[in-house]
Design goal:
212 residues; 70% helix; elongated; DNA-binding; transcription; HTH-type_TetR-like_transc_reg; mainly alpha
Length: 212
Amino acid sequence: MARTHSSPSGRPRTRLSAADRRASIIDAATQAFAESGYQRATMGQIATRLGVTEPVVFQNFGSKTGLYAAVVAHATGQMVAMMRELAEHSDSIGGLLRQLLSPDHIDELHAPGSLGVIFADAMTLTAEPAIGAAVRAHVGELADVLAEVIARGQRDGELRADLDPASAAWLVLSFLSAHPFRSAVMPDRRHLEEHIAAMTLGMLLDQGESPS
């Protein structure tokens, strides 16, 4: 709960509770890391976004890696919520998977300022114990939700009945997360990415469904 105090000028000043302060730091850090990446974003920049001093950020999270681990958890929660909402409003799980695996969506997911930047960075930082633990714990939550979506597609008769939903979920997540690798080394990346997406869909869809 926020408390109101008087500033030296006599104007009321709002003091955030500890939980609200941490939440505000995580929000600001998520934006900073998504826009600039882990290496370029600084604790000072995050503090400036909030209008606080840099020690305030360190007092709440201890280190940059500790803050990034909290951001991974927060970003996963946002992704899980988005996935649930997409599935809830989708009439076709096959159509939803086509959308998720499309080159346009993958480009958008990994554009500066997007949550995909958080996860792409996190995969390169798993040697840091706090970040590695956060990635393993929270990305697994996203895989679990995607497995639920795939299981619904099986019940609806759109996806192959012999699929293991958990394995299929990790297949989709692997395709989404490998975008930086493909962008860095793949010739004619967009053309090949379309074909790889179609092949992936072909492995998921029931034979009566078209991957196009």
